[in-house]
């Protein structure tokens, strides 16, 4: 009986230690996300510095607002003073990426042959570009000719076209031109808008089964084409938030690492165990924790020994 009590006490003690350890680890993890004293969460999105909510909690150009929509907290990234903020989905400090909701543009013909169109500019701020490697310009429809126009260092325009009848819509999940088309976008794109031309399809009038054409820029890892998409009159609402995920690349500052390191008071790589990386063909740089460390290099003491190394082990020299 005494032995059983001792075992029970050991189990309870071990459980309490584990809970304390988990809580401590969680607190440490949170402390390396936002600036001390700043809100580190909005809804289910972690807000990692240099992004932040409230005065003194973000670097210039990285402000996030947390608003209530349908009884839920939703973060918005304020990328431009000229347009409303974009809903923020997640932040990757290591890769210098952020995902936001991108608008879906559309052109529809109803049963009475009335035409309606909705498109608007998507614009980002000076520290951001629309990722060329992660996104694709995508169109959906059986009688679709769509163009994407935008700006990087120059004006840019490209197009995509798709045609199909009821029996020829691609069912592979890929965009092959039969109901769906995809094409790449250029480097350093900072704004875009989708426009449409009315297309008299090779297959004739398709408005009875494909009344709308859609165009958008989307994270290619997110999007898989489905045959049913061509028949929707509200594709943008399929995803619940009126848009599709788009990946932004971001940098801090507007200079190279060598230039930024001349002024340590404004140098963004704050942790002693961090290093700076230049970004090709774009003004600004990124910070990362040194080998053997992980966390947030934009914060003082934001990089901690990686889980790869135990608390009693030393991280390797750089």
UniProtKB/TrEMBL annotation:
<feature type="domain" description="Wall-associated receptor kinase galacturonan-binding">
    <location>
        <begin position="38"/>
        <end position="97"/>
    </location>
</feature>
<dbReference type="GO" id="GO:0030247">
    <property type="term" value="F:polysaccharide binding"/>
</dbReference>
<keyword id="KW-0732">Signal</keyword>
<dbReference type="InterPro" id="IPR025287">
    <property type="entry name" value="WAK_GUB"/>
</dbReference>
<dbReference type="Pfam" id="PF13947">
    <property type="entry name" value="GUB_WAK_bind"/>
</dbReference>
<dbReference type="GO" id="GO:0016020">
    <property type="term" value="C:membrane"/>
</dbReference>
<feature type="signal peptide">
    <location>
        <begin position="1"/>
        <end position="23"/>
    </location>
</feature>
<protein>
    <recommendedName>
        <fullName>Wall-associated receptor kinase galacturonan-binding domain-containing protein</fullName>
    </recommendedName>
</protein>
């Amino acid at each position: 009986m005494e032995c059983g009590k001792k075992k029970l006490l050991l189990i309870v003690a071990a459980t309490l230690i584990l809970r304390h350890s988990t809580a401590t680890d969680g607190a440490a993890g949170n402390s390396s996300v936002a600036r001390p004293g700043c809100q580190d969460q909005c809804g289910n999105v972690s807000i990692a510095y240099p992004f932040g909510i409230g005065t003194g909690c973000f670097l210039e150009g990285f402000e996030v607002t947390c608003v209530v929509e349908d009884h839920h907290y939703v973060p918005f990234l304020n990328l431009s003073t000229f347009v409303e903020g974009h809903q923020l989905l997640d932040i990757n400090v290591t890769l210098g990426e952020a995902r936001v909701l991108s608008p879906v543009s559309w052109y529809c013909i109803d049963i009475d042959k009335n035409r309606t169109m909705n498109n608007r500019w998507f614009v980002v701020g000076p520290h951001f570009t629309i990722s060329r490697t992660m996104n694709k310009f995508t169109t959906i429809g059986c009688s679709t000719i769509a163009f994407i126009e935008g700006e990087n260092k120059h004006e840019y325009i490209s197009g995509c076209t798709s045609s199909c009848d009821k029996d020829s819509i691609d069912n592979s999940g890929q965009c092959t031109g039969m109901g769906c088309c995809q094409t790449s976008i250029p480097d350093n794109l900072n704004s875009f808008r989708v426009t449409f031309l009315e297309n008299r399809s090779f297959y004739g009038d398709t408005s009875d089964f494909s009344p709308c054409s859609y165009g958008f820029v989307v994270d290619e890892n997110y999007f898989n084409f489905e045959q049913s998409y061509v028949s929707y009159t509200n594709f943008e609402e399929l995803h619940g938030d009126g848009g599709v995920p788009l990946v932004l690349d971001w940098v801090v500052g507007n200079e190279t690492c060598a230039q930024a390191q001349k002024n340590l008071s404004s140098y963004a790589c704050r942790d002693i165990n961090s290093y700076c990386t230049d970004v090709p063909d774009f003004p600004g740089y990124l910070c990362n924790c040194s080998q053997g460390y992980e966390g947030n290099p934009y914060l003082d003491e934001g990089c901690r020994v990686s889980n790869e190394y135990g608390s009693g082990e030393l991280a390797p020299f750089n």
